UniProtKB/TrEMBL annotation, chains A, B:
GO-annotated molecular function: carboxy-lyase activity; pyridoxal phosphate binding
A matching Pfam family: Pyridoxal_deC
Keyword Lyase: yes
Cofactor(s) annotated in UniProt: pyridoxal 5'-phosphate
The protein's name in its UniProt record: Aromatic-L-amino-acid decarboxylase
Entries under Gene3D superfamilies matching the protein: Aspartate Aminotransferase, domain 1, dopa decarboxylase, N-terminal domain, Type I PLP-dependent aspartate aminotransferase-like (Major domain)
């Protein structure tokens, strides 16, 4: 493809994306394809001769789009949001046009320098302590692929620092602490690193957030057993229910015990951009006690996947754990300590030019625009939670957390209260009923044995009418399921999932 | 930005990229900026109010492009190539437009299904054994971020399988094998995983490739010491000199000793698309003995960063090591074993829709187009190597490997032969002279104490005239450096790097 062909095909791609978004609301939310659909529609091998680009682009519309679940659809309420904005798309396009592997400053100085600038911008916008700024010269921010990567990097740095201070400790005695509500990234990091992960207990009485007393007790007991907890993954906004670990209690205990506290705020960290959420999100305690902090701008932060922001209080703890610079990667600028080589702040060598999308998004929306997006999502979730609370057959399973409502069918005023098993059966049936639809999507979760439904707001195009419609669909289905139950129709008992 | 603004700004972005490529050859290859240039030119904080997009896009031209080293410039000969194509850019744009975190099949079925299709396409194109195909149901291919990630994933799987078979072995006794020429990803994986990396010796007599005898001896000696080598990172095309480990010798020994053989062919793996290189690249032995194989299409494979292709012979060894599926990520399709959930084939949970760029590239170029690109690069490198060999003051340090020439200033027919230190001094001076230019870029390397220069061909726009010009620049500089030396001008002795 030469330059003029690219211009033509580029315009057509832009037009196709405009068309997709113009018709987004009329599309199914969930891709309506069966496993294996694609392999039946495409050849079995790479073509010998190149094909004309227009037919390839047409196949994107014909073969790929039907298999895409529209995360930007205003009725997408599953998992957590994964925002995409036009500003982010254009940034991705510019980044792709000057592709380079970005492993050191010299690869393309703009990549490193812009990353430092925008990570400082974002840190200030979230109210993070200045120790976390690149400008501090001590800590700093780095863009990772995902919150899993961010946590893994933090744990590797924590382990390295701990073993450096305690050279006689055997790695097999090390413990990664999280809770039963910690994202699977905790257990996965342990699996990858060959370490043990311990899920501390949390309770409904504190809305599934970790308490200081639980942490303190675990440290004492584990140390008595000869174990060495060295890192705590604390969560601001768990995936299951949006729970917040009690930072004011656990922060000082972790610090006192020499544990690295990594705050996984993948989803909810972005709320810190709004001053009114900072107290609830324990910003002050995070600033006092966290050794590292992660939030994903590619979730609720208007930035196209992938952009996981990780800040650390000590950059040398990262580079001590990750720097293996060989001769062919040495540069005069790094040797002189004049520049950051971000490869030593992450697992991989190569890295994409991702700061540009955060730069484009933050400048396009401004602090005001981002706050407006967050506040609107929370208000819409509140609207939904109000519907739930006003209903006689539904209940919230936990208090609404930011833009997440966790709820279930739990009819009140029944003669014989239903058992947990019966309620779980009812809600599985309800979930399957909704999961069978193509015009809305939500997800399920298991909260210590309680089967619940989750509705997470955050797509940019979601308005009040979509929330009203969601409630109409869910409440109508709930009424039907409850009526069937009362009429004696059997409730499926299999542990169905979607 | 609404849809019509996006259309307008999208067209402008396409135009801007056209302009960049139209003027590419007239640009400096290497960014002409000093460390810290950007922070002086941008505000210190996120703006409160959003800015109009045209001024943001203009800042990409004004602030970012000057800090970009043009890896697509026809006179870029540093490191290895990092190809970007218009087809890849459009694919990135389409992928960004339907952004989704891609962690399981249900996220967007097209992402998973296309990845399986194109990884099978690529495997067949490279001639990999059918055991590596997704279609085999046993092995399969997965797209990773970088060769570091690919190696790390392979090592984690290897460790898991090894410890499962040998439950009494202590991780501290495990050894990762590579050579002194293995990419830093080997040592870095060891650092991340808290394991030991052992660099086996290689010798100039076999062009810095690992021999079976060395491997056999190491296994015996290490086992006698109670150590357990469990994985061997074998390289097809090392970064330093393009060395190829002797797969026919080491493959059977690794297998016999129960070592997982991971073949890191990040750069040179793509040459397997050309039948004439398969013997030199030991395809037959890779197919017989490799447990995993990685090549980066984002290097020499016309695909925009990032696209590291990893194939494994046993997918269950990956998922045994990496699957920690929690309730909220369970889906009926995965539970039924009907689909691949690629999150269990990688370190992170979230993942980008990257298969589309490989699909666009492979279809646009076809096997013929990709082969033509590889063959042209090799022919151009041969052209350069011929210049070196015909010169009376330069020599090749190792035989040309595919499109990489490693050479140095080493005047022949001198009365007193120069010592290695003297030669290194001369070549450092030469390297600094070339590194000070903006119209060409090459890199240096250290080959067991010998300071060498590397010229790697592979940018799509490099033609014979750029090679002739490169030789003119380098040979002229070499003549000057040698004349200065002969005239008694001092040669700097510092270990300069660029």
């Amino acid at each position: 493809m030469d330059i003029e062909q690219f211009r033509k095909e580029g315009y057509k791609a832009i037009d196709a994306i405009c068309e997709y978004y113009a018709g987004l609301e009329q599309r199914p939310v969930v891709a309506q394809v069966e496993p294996g659909y694609l392999s039946k529609l495409v050849p079995n091998e790479v073509p010998e001769k190149g094909e004309p680009f227009p037919s390839i682009a047409a196949d994107f519309q014909r073969l790929i789009l039907p298999g895409i679940t529209s995360w930007q659809h205003p009725s997408f309420f599953a998992y957590f949001p994964s925002n995409a904005t036009f500003e982010g798309m254009l940034a991705d396009l510019y980044a792709s046009s000057v592709t380079n592997p970005g492993f050191n400053w010299a690869c393309s100085p703009a990549c490193t320098e812009l990353e430092s600038v925008v990570m400082d911008w974002a840190a200030k916008m979230l109210g993070l302590d200045e120790a976390f700024l690149v400008q501090s010269g001590v800590g700093g921010g780095v863009i990772q692929t995902s919150a899993s990567d961010s946590a893994l990097v933090a744990i590797v740095a924590a382990r390295s620092a701990f073993l450096h201070a305690h050279p006689n400790v055997s790695p097999s005695d090390l413990l990664i602490y999280g809770t039963s509500q910690t994202h699977s990234l905790g257990a996965k990091a342990a699996l990858i690193l060959g370490l043990n992960f311990k899920a501390l207990e949390v309770y409904p009485t504190y809305q599934y957030g970790l308490r200081g007393s639980t942490l303190q007790k675990a440290i004492l007991e584990d140390r008595q057993k000869g174990k060495h907890p060295f890192v705590l993954i604390a969560t601001l906004g768990t995936t299951s229910t949006g729970a917040i670990d009690c930072m004011p209690e656990i922060g000082p205990i972790a610090k006192e015990a020499g544990l690295w506290m990594h705050v996984d705020a993948a989803w909810a960290g972005i709320t810190l951009s709004c001053p009114e959420y900072r107290e609830k999100a324990y910003l002050k305690d995070i600033n006092l006690h966290a050794d590292s902090f992660c939030t994903n701008f590619h979730k609720w932060g208007l930035t196209n996947f992938d952009l996981s922001a990780l800040w650390v209080r000590s950059r040398t703890k990262l580079t001590d754990a990750l720097d293996v610079t060989p001769a062919f990667l040495r540069t005069k600028q790094s040797d002189a300590g004049m520049v950051i080589d971000y490869r030593n702040w992450q697992l991989s060598l190569g890295r994409k030019f991702r700061s540009i999308k955060l730069w484009f998004v933050l400048r396009s929306y401004g602090v005001e625009g981002l706050r407006a997006h967050i506040r609107k999502s929370v208000a819409l979730a509140t609207h939904f939670a109000d519907f739930v609370q006003e209903s006689s057959i539904f209940e919230l399973c936990t208090p609404q957390s930011f833009a997440l409502a966790v709820f279930r069918l739990a009819p009140k005023d029944v003669e014989t209260p239903l058992t947990q098993d019966q309620l779980n059966g009812l809600n599985r049936t309800l979930f399957h009923k909704i999961a069978a639809r193509s015009d809305i999507t939500i997800t399920q979760t298991d909260v210590l044995g309680m089967f619940c439904l989750r509705l997470a707001v955050g797509a940019q195009r979601t308005e009040e009418r979509h929330i009203r419609r969601a409630w109409e669909i869910i409440s109508t289905a709930g009424v039907e399921v409850w009526a069937d139950y009362q009429a004696g129709k059997p409730v499926p008992v299999e542990n169905g999932t979607h």
